[in-house]
Amino acid sequence: MDKLTYLSNADSGYIDSLYQAYKEDPNAVDVSWQKFFEGFEFGQTAEGGSAPAETPEQAIKEINVLNMINGYRDRGHLFTETNPVRERRKYFPGKELETFGLSEADLDTVFNAGVEVGLGQAKLRDIRQLIEDTYCRSIGAEFRYIRHPEKIKFLQDKMEADRNTPQFSLDGKKRILKKLNEAVIFESFLGTKFLGQKRFSLEGAESLIPALDSVIQKGSSLGIEEFVIGMAHRGRLNVLTNVMGKSYKTIFSEFEGKMYEADPEIQFGGDVKYHLGFSSDITSQDGKNIHLSLAPNPSHLETVDGVAEGMVRSKIDLKYEGDSSKIAPILIHGDAAVAAQGIVYETIQMSKLDGYKTGGTIHIVINNQVGFTTNYKDARSSTYCTDIAKVTLSPVFHVNGDDVEALVYAINLAVEYRQKYKTDVFIDLLGYRRYGHNEADEPKFTQPSLYKLIEKHPNTLAIYVKKLVDQGSIDIDFAKLLEKDFRAVLQERLDEAKKVEQISEERPMFAGAWKGLRPARAADIGTSAETKVSKDLFVKLAKEMNSLPKDKKFFRKITKVFEDRLKMIDSDKYDWAMGELMAYATLLNEDYGIRISGQDVQRGTFSHRHAVVTLEDSDETYTPLAKVKGGEKFNIYNSLLSEYAVLAFEYGYASVNPNTLTIWEAQFGDFANGAQIVFDQYISSGETKWKRSNGLVMLLPHGMEGQGPEHSSCRIERYLELCANNNMIVANCTTPANYFHMLRRQLHREFRKPLIVATPKSLLRHPKAVSALTDFTEKGFQEIIDDETVTAKSVKRVVLCSGKIYYDLLEKQEADKRKDVAIVRVEQLYPIAHTQIEALQKKYAKAEFVWVQEENENMGAWPYYCRKFRGSSLDLKYIARPESGSPATGYMKQHVAQQTEIINKAFEI
């Protein structure tokens, strides 16, 4: 251990006792301390002279200097010049010399502690100046909480060597100026040409644009080939044009109210311009190709975080063979949102988990110091909006947005750190908001003092131009010409936009990984897909998948599960788990990928799946599907206890990987409530808003089995109310084979649609919920399953039902030998199988039609079917539980009585 380490770890009393012992007998102390006391020269003078220390006082001073250095490293960020428009809050203790046991009298004393910051023996004055420049100027760094000495040393060495003071070449400064000029003038141009229109201006934080430009260039030099950006609306138009390369003409056309070209057969409603996504290819300064993607987003500010992360992971798996160093996510937050939105925490907690990690995210917070109209003091309890970074021990750089060079320096260091350590990094860009939440707002209503300061504050471009002119790097005419030329370009594009009739797509959806696929058309929805497989292949895969290795010791119950599955082959009765797993096995055999995630999905909430099994005597796991052909493409991950972020992640994953069956399973169907924003803003509406298809499958366990209000209903009614224009599929299957075909159908059509499945609980082991081999090998998916046990002319009532209640009705039908009631299963609730229903009406022409469900009258499928068939030739009546504010009773006796009443009423003619 070196002397400085001794000093930093020892207190004065300890050193004093050691020194006294050393003076009496040098051999009385450790050899290291002997060398320390022999070789260390205390109290060097400013002139370089020195005198041996007779007391440890000078050693204590050395300790104090080291404490000061570490104090700045730990707390210097509290005393920075990072706020461009107002004074920072005061924190105590401060950074005065007296805080560290030093005084002005010590400033010209030379201390060996200077070695700690790379100065060697140095005056206290110079040591303090270095750490002031490093930790208390335009950049405040938080990183000392990281429990990894190498990472801490990396950041300390980098920052202290540079003093956090960037050194750019003249060309580098001119590039920064060019991007800053574009950012500022673009906003100014929009403000004057489109008065009163919302644009969610970046004004007050325009340095974001040169920062993004720099991180892309720096990242490319470090091996990154692709960036995926997720951000909300603030500054989005500026990013789209000045970073992504979306044409100014297109943006202006959108402001002019021009519509995108549309196929009349495809429903496209569009979205506001500051929600749209975009992708492009650019060339870096050193000639490398870089692909950029900006994920589309709704106004639910941070939902896009999970989506963007899922997109990145999908590309890591599909395109980069697991190498996260070639692609990086950039998430751009608002200060109020990053502090208050729970999905930010959920997404950050995913960052180091095997199923979701993306090699580190670069987080940039556009810190306006206000959220909508709320003061930052009312927006969070934490010191900083970025304090959530500490959850994953990620470094944070707080940067004055008016110091554009400091911001570029910090973000370059951030991407370097990300590439080296594969972890998240946060940039807190402190700026302000020139106008209100949108350009029509009056911010003075709630922030009068702040906006008096902002009114007088020069913009970032003016500040940087002055700095460069004062340095002699440019003259004022250079800056004026830059602005004039850019304004002329913008005016030309605006003139062109005014002549545009319709906007053309700049980058088609069905390219890249989506090549060969297409949008769905109305005629496609009722068209069957070829999903059956050969008997030989089915049996072969079933045996391979369920033959556990003899040299591994499994739990006896697990062994029995697999033995029972093998017996299903002989008995020709395949249960739900086998139907599901065989769908995966056959798709893997066809070279498709499978990705499943959710809480406890490997085993399954109801212990039915066992896609991954654990050995009895160790934590070693075995994945049966890995044995079959293509098994290396099977991935199933138990998720963290999150629905919102995980579902967003899987949506993002499926959005860029259409040839993998991507599945999210809720532990119970009602858990999906916590992810409702993803259903509303992406799954149901993404194609209509953004022309972005998605084939994500959501499995939501559902069924009224007396388990109380929370774990009975997946809220089928909520998903059906989101259905329109064939935007997604909602199903509630009753047989393993139909479920098998439905899952396979997802990848066997030329288009992709989200699929929501109300999956069973009790049916997982119901003796009649089984399928024969021929159901898998000779049939396809059946939207409606007719009753084959009755004669049409004898039927007086047709019971339409969906899901588990079918088996309750069947039991009654069989027990009472009723041939006058036909039980017809509606397996696909949406899109409605109108053709099949019309055929049923003709077949059972003299019968009445009744919708029977176990859910309450105001829930389940009835409200939707009531609306859709109102006034039609199908005079549909209903039988259900009474309407209720709660999905189910909590009393088993009441549940049984209600269920019995429904079943009895269904047969009362």
UniProtKB/TrEMBL annotation:
Question: Out of the domains of life, which is the source?
Answer: Bacteria
State which residue ranges cross the membrane.
none
User: Any idea which UniProt keywords this protein has?
Assistant: Oxidoreductase, Thiamine pyrophosphate
Coiled coil segments of this chain: none
| Record-listed E.C. numbers | 1.2.4.2
- Pfam families in UniProt: 2-oxogl_dehyd_N (PF16078), E1_dh (PF00676), OxoGdeHyase_C (PF16870), Transket_pyr (PF02779)
Q: Which GO terms describe its molecular function?
A: oxoglutarate dehydrogenase (succinyl-transferring) activity
Family in the record: Belongs to the alpha-ketoglutarate dehydrogenase family.
What is this protein's name? Answer: oxoglutarate dehydrogenase (succinyl-transferring)
Q: Native species of this protein?
A: Sphingobacterium bambusae
